[in-house]
Structures are given as C-alpha cells and as structure tokens.
Specification:
Blueprint (H helix, E strand, L loop, with lengths): L1 H21 L2 H16 L4
Length: 44
C-alpha cells in the first residue's frame, strides 16, 4: 500500500514538473527568483 502511494506521488510529481517545463514556467520562476534576490540585497 505504502509503496504504491510513494510511486504514485513520485509519478505525479514528475508529470507536474514536465508539464511546467513544457508550458514555459521555467522562465517565469527564474525571473521571479532573480527579482526577489535583487530586492533582498537592495539593488532592484
């Protein structure tokens, strides 16, 4: 039971990551991360 749950969660996680990559969300997340970092050090 637990093994099926672990593999199910792992499969859904991988599918979600692949969907996000194919949808172009990598650029959005990277841009937000850069903006947050620049705001923290006071440049942005």
């Amino acid at each position: 039971m637990i093994n099926k749950l672990k593999y199910g969660v792992l499969t859904m996680s991988i599918l979600s990551i692949l969907y996000g990559i194919s949808d172009g969300e990598v650029d959005v997340v990277l841009n937000k991360a850069i903006n947050i970092c620049l705001e923290c050090i006071g440049i942005g």
